[in-house]
Amino acid sequence: SQQGEEDPQALSIQEGENATMNCSYKTSINNLQWYRQNSGRGLVHLILIRSNEREKHSGRLRVTLDTSKKSSSLLITASRAADTASYFCATGLRGGADGLTFGKGTHLIIQP
Amino acid sequence: DTEVTQTPKHLVMGMTNKKSLKCEQHMGHRAMYWYKQKAKKPPELMFVYSYEKLSINESVPSRFSPECPNSSLLNLHLHALQPEDSALYLCASSQPRQTGSNYGYTFGSGTRLTVV
């Protein structure tokens, strides 16, 4: 079953604008991760935020985590055409086993 | 080496064929995974190997048979597949959670499988 649910499912913005994607999850977590997938390719790990962190930055990426609301957001600032991809949030399996469960993903299109 | 290598990149097979997908990593990761991804859907976990032992099988049909010969290699043996098994098959690796690792997973580029 899917742990994370992203919204929006699709987002189209102009180059240079900021893009915000949201993720909600259902159970307690140790950390939450965000991945990017270019069309038909493998997933690339972007950023991991631990359950005791509220905000984390990496370059043009900013991730927030609200464990009380079981939600996270990914902000991409100053978007570029190369940011066009699908973005997934992922959380660990119940019971602490190895493995990730992915949300449905947000397909982001950056218009040049 | 910070990559997960999957071969082949593309595979077309008939429903009576037997084929294998291969995955290799040299990052010292002791957990490896197979995921299946259909178009416009998120990856779905199939199998998890931790320390070369199968720890999770997410109710995957027996026509998919995983194998972990050593800590660097992961295979997925395919037999008598159905057209609905056509998908992108992704391999990933990580340090096991019990090590306290808080690093992300490394994914391969996948094998695009078409069953005819």
Characterization of the model:
The complex is a heterodimer of chains A (112) and B (116). Chain A is mainly β and 112 residues long. Chain A has no helices and 11 strands. In chain A, a hairpin with a 7-residue loop joins β9 (85-92) and β10 (100-102). Chain B has strands at residues 4-7, 10-13, 18-25, 31-37, 44-50, 53-57, 64-70, 73-79, 87-94, 106-107, 111-115. In chain B, strands 2, 4, 5, 6, 9, 10 and 11 form a 7-stranded mixed β-sheet that branches. In chain B, strands 1-3-8-7 form a 4-stranded antiparallel β-sheet, with no helix packed on it. Chain B is mainly beta and 116 residues long. In chain B, a hairpin with a 2-residue loop joins β7 (64-70) and β8. Chain B is built from no helices and 11 strands. The chains are: A mainly beta (112), B mainly beta (116). Chain A binds chain B through residues 2, 30-31, 33, 35, 40-48, 50, 88, 92-93, 96-105, 107, and chain B through 4, 6, 31, 33, 40-45, 48, 50, 55-56, 88, 90, 92, 94, 96-97, 102-110, 112.
